[in-house]
Design a protein that fits this description.
There is one protein chain. This protein is mostly beta strands. It has one helix and four strands, in the order αββββ.
Amino acid sequence: MEREQATGLTKVKLALRQPVAGRPCFELRCNLAKLGSVRVASTLDGQVARIWFISTSLQKATF
């Protein structure tokens, strides 16, 4: 997440107020060209990123 912020991908933000597996959960919205736009939720534990959710629905209610 720090690298995303450093490279200007400012769409990374806190996804939930409650921790997931003891870690803050972040979300990133991105456009994957032919696959379309997606929302990805993940936690970061040192050098390990865990993906918890991937959706093509950008509605946060789905999240």
